[in-house]
Design goal:
mainly alpha; two-stranded antiparallel sheet; 8 helices
Length: about 170
């Protein structure tokens, strides 16, 4: 089994090198398009990596969004409520946006949950009775909203401002 471990280690090292090469290619493409500042702003958010940042910036440039709700709806992370009179239906995501961006945001939320900035928000959602999947989706929405604000205002990520404003919602 010892010889297999060496092969596994070599394969993992090759994968790490390939991911780094892909990240460099993405950042070069962002520079070529003039999006490097926007990508850097999004990458400053804990949990958001180069691929997710590039996808969010590309989505941002794809449409003219009048507000954050339009951006969230475009991503397919908005909630559809079905109810009539006394009947209360289940709330579901519309999933009308691009599924790959939702997957990237979900993975970013799983990573962000490990950060001290986002962990309390995730734990509050879990304490309210949400499943882990629902809490990750809510955190995904939060990450997308923060990215939208940074892109719209051309501002830098400030974790202290985040704690003062929107972490309780």
């Amino acid at each position: 089994m010892g010889s297999l471990q060496e092969d596994v280690d070599a394969l993992l090292e090759q994968c790490v090198r390939m991911i780094a090469k892909l990240d460099r290619a993405l950042l070069a493409q962002a520079r070529e398009l003039g999006w490097s500042d926007s990508v850097a702003r999004c990458r400053a958010i804990p949990g958001i990596g180069p691929l997710t940042a590039m996808a969010l910036v590309a989505t941002w440039h794809r449409g003219a969004f009048c507000n954050v709700d339009a951006f969230i709806a475009f991503l397919g992370l908005d909630v559809r409520v079905r109810q009539s009179g006394r009947w209360q239906g289940r709330r579901k995501l519309t999933k009308k946006g691009h599924g790959e961006i939702r997957r990237l945001l979900f993975n970013a939320a799983m990573q962000a949950r490990r950060n001290a900035l986002w962990a309390p928000y995730y734990l509050r959602l879990r304490d309210r009775g949400l499943s882990s999947t629902a809490a990750f989706v809510a955190l995904s929405r939060k990450l997308a909203k923060v990215c939208f604000a940074l892109l719209q205002n051309n501002s830098q990520f400030d974790p202290l401002a985040l704690k003062r404003t929107c972490m309780s919602t």
